[in-house]
Amino acid sequence: MKDIYYQVTGQGFPVVFLHGNGEDHHIFDQAVNLLSKQYQCICIDSRYHGRSVHAGELSYQQMCQDVMAVMDELNIAAYDVIGFSDGGIVSLMLGMQDSRLKHIISIGANTKPRYIKRFYRLTFYLQMICLAIFSIYQKKARLTFRLYKLMLTQPQIEYKQLQQIHVPVLVLAGEFDMIDAKDTNHIGESLPYGIVKIIQHGNHFLLRDAFQETVKEISLFLEACHQEENYECMSSSTIEDR
């Protein structure tokens, strides 16, 4: 896919990595170094991020469609997803739309903008006010403004929609996450096969500030999911980095 950049590392069952707002696939570098020993790690730069196209619709639904298009291109018949923040939102949306998705790890996701804690929402709004001025002159400021707006207007997921996800889901969040704990727990309760794990003393950026404990939970979940499953290679040809 010429519009969406992705990088593939390792061999085994495909695991897709989806980053958060304003980031790129490199936030998973440390995790991929470990997980690529067992899995085929597919790291994607979301639209308007990293080396992917900075054009088209900016929405979580479009990001979801982009992931499915990459899976089409790679001839992936079954895959898992590890999504952080915005990527965690997209991972849940994929679970409602793509039957190829078999297991989900959603880190720091929210169902609606109002479940971002008030302090952080206020901070984002204040930053948008400042960015509005610089947006007149700077392309980067205009993009950042749009990315903040995305977080403050999307997603709009109803808990009952999560009942459509009939695959195992690990819902991870930090004890001091920027996402309201009530939303995190309701996500887990709404999922037919959901497990909620709160990382003690952790914040929103678990892969950065609580890496060892977070990657341990990820590894244990994936191992449990695949323990009794024997998958063949899911891609029809050798895949090279894009």
TrEMBL record:
Molecular function GO terms recorded: hydrolase activity
Domain of life: Bacteria
Pfam family for this entry, one: Abhydrolase_1
InterPro entries given in the database record: AB_hydrolase, AB_hydrolase_1, AB_hydrolase_fold
Bilayer-spanning residue ranges: 119-137
Limits of the AB hydrolase-1 domain: 14-121
Record keywords: Hydrolase, Membrane, Transmembrane, Transmembrane helix
Protein name from the UniProt record: Alpha/beta hydrolase
